[in-house]
Amino acid sequence: MSVKSPSSSALDYLFLHSLILFAVMSQCYGQGSIGVCNGRLGSDLPSEQEVVELYKSNGIKRMRIYDPNQATLSALQGSDIELILDVPNADLESLQSDATQWVQTNIRPYFPATKIRYIAVGNEVDHENGQTSRFVPFVLLAMQSIYKALSTFGLQEDIKVSTATYSAVIMDTYPPSKASFKDMSFMGPIINFLAQTGAPLLANIYPYFGYIGDTEHIKLPYALFTSPEVVVQDGEYGYTNLFDAMVDAMYVAVERAGGPNVEIIVSESGWPSDGGLGASMENAKTYYKNLIDHVKKGTPRRPRNAIQTHLFAMFDENQKPGAPTEQHFGLFYPNKGQKYSDISFNNL
């Protein structure tokens, strides 16, 4: 029996199909890679170039910085490290009408050699947060202004504009299916903007703060990914850890606000090694190791949808204000020594 060779058109089709499948698989699984937030509130931190080299030598593929630090933006050029670039809260008001100069100064000289992927317009702005409430009127306006400026230079598809929010903006989170935004007049238009522009919502997710805020009902194993069984049953969804419950509560709130297709990227998550209740080297190591392993799997509401997650933070920061724990979230010491020697960031 003779065997016919496939035609060139058939081979072309198979090749194209393989490329498409590879691209889809790369997108689905690549999103789960781990990043690390690069805070600079320390008196003894390495230079920006040294920090980038430390990321590279440890296989860390994503970074978040909290202001457009020119030295960091320059050091990242050609590194292939993907970046979340923050607009500090204090700058939001000045950008609400025209962000052209901001984009000219902080984006155009560096992109695309520096792989800026997202701009976080404000961090944890909330009506109920005494430190950030005054910035509420400016968040959406600044987002729209930066998007318009990016569009002027044809960059609006390459760099997505979002804001970094946190769990305090949602209510009725137990069980996650009841969650909604506390202030729809604030978050509703933001979710609508994200849906229209195809941008994700950035969310800081901290089981640590959930745990210390309610130790009566939230037990340590549930917060550290070490519970052997389902702790919260929410209809068909069972939760063995608080991280999943917090992420899914955010997804539910986003859906209720009209953004069923808006992705959530975890822009911060961490556990302190000292300074307060539950803060220890052992607990922090357990949290980080389990989080790195877990985010590849998705959540009960988004199974197999890997969660792009940024660990907080690269270094202990001895000048960080707030509770004593704030100075002890680092994965590395300022001398570049790794705090938890058996945590690996490679192949994520």
Automatic annotation (TrEMBL):
Which Gene3D superfamilies would you find in this protein's record? Glycosidases
Which keywords does UniProt give here? Glycosidase, Hydrolase, Signal
Leader peptide range in chain numbering? 1-30
Task: Specify one Pfam family.
Answer: Glyco_hydro_17
According to its UniProt entry, the protein's GO biological process terms are:
carbohydrate metabolic process
* Keyword Cytoplasm attached: no
Which InterPro entries is this protein grouped with?
GH (IPR017853), Glyco_hydro_17 (IPR000490), Glyco_hydro_17_plant (IPR044965)
- PROSITE patterns, A to Z: GLYCOSYL_HYDROL_F17 (PS00587)
Give this protein's Gene Ontology molecular function annotations. glucan endo-1,3-beta-D-glucosidase activity
Q: What class of enzyme is it?
A: hydrolase
Q: What is its EC number?
A: 3.2.1.39
**Entry similarity comment:** Belongs to the glycosyl hydrolase 17 family.
Q: What is this protein called?
A: Glucan endo-1,3-beta-D-glucosidase
> Lineage, please?
Eukaryota, Viridiplantae, Streptophyta, Embryophyta, Tracheophyta
